[in-house]
């Protein structure tokens, strides 16, 4: 039986992208190839807010995610990849994960809920474990699944074939796999040549519906998103493209959301909210 290192497993409303508003189980895996320390910072600066959180952790260790402070700059899910917090993320068997999912679903079974596999970067290292989970008897009625990825990790041939077959498996012919690709622009602080991988994202299209979601704050960011979209289109990307405001805490989100919505309209792109911020203050577990 496979195991996954799980940062969080919770039930909430999907706040972003194509499935905004859909009740969803979120499975947040541990580990990421990025840090995204540039979010919410002046151009070129990197946040060290997570170091302050770690200093608090050393003084009086946090024992669960719900106790961790939110950060207003950098990656808002820092504890799902920063090794200094790895002890908060247990290694669970796929059997234990499926059992836990049944416990948190409102009727203890799949109905219309959607599964979001997020991170960290969920396609980093864990691809070999997902077939065991998705083939688990308790998952048979699951119809829709989204991988929230940064779009840098190629699918293994085995996993790609698995997803193609999972999506077409009768009697659940309406099963659908989605890749929500949050490709990182320069405001993330990540190097462009590491972050923008159109050939990887185009291959996702062979295994599921794929869309792009760029986190932006300024008009310059939105223009960079448009230029970057052209690069994906030139490679054969055919999906939708969203602009989403930066802002893992309400004070930052409310500074940006209207401006980003207006930029999306101006550029003929879709706007994605982050409903978890106004609804639930983006607390861990939401
Ligand atoms: S890719 Fe996502 S999870 Fe990884 S550091 Fe960036 S924002 Fe955080």
Structure notes:
By secondary structure, the chain is α/β, with parallel strands linked by helices. Helix content is 31%, strand content 19%. It contains nine helices and nine strands. The chain has a nine-stranded mixed beta sheet with strand order 3-1-2-4-5-6-7-8-9. The model has no long low-confidence stretch (mean pLDDT 94). The chain binds iron/sulfur cluster. Iron/sulfur cluster is lined by residues 32, 34-36, 75, 77, 81, 119-121, 150.
- Total helix count? 9
First CA to last CA: what distance? 28 Å
Strand order of the largest sheet: 3-1-2-4-5-6-7-8-9
**Low-pLDDT regions:** none
Structural class by sheet pairing and helices: alpha/beta
Tell me the total number of β-strands: 9
List keywords for this structure.
9 helices; alpha/beta; single chain; 286 residues; 31% helix; binds iron/sulfur cluster
Task: Map the helices and strands.
Blueprint: E1 3-13, E2 23-29, H1 49-59, E3 91-93, H2 94-104, E4 114-118, H3 130-134, E5 144-149, H4 157-166, E6 176-181, H5 192-195, H6 198-204, E7 209-216, H7 219-235, E8 241-245, H8 250-267, E9 270-271, H9 276-280
Parallel strand pairs: 2-4, 4-5, 5-6, 6-7, 7-8, 8-9
Antiparallel strand pairs: 1-2, 1-3
Helix pairs in contact: 6-7
Iron/sulfur cluster (SF4) is lined by residues 32, 34-36, 75, 77, 81, 119-121, 150.
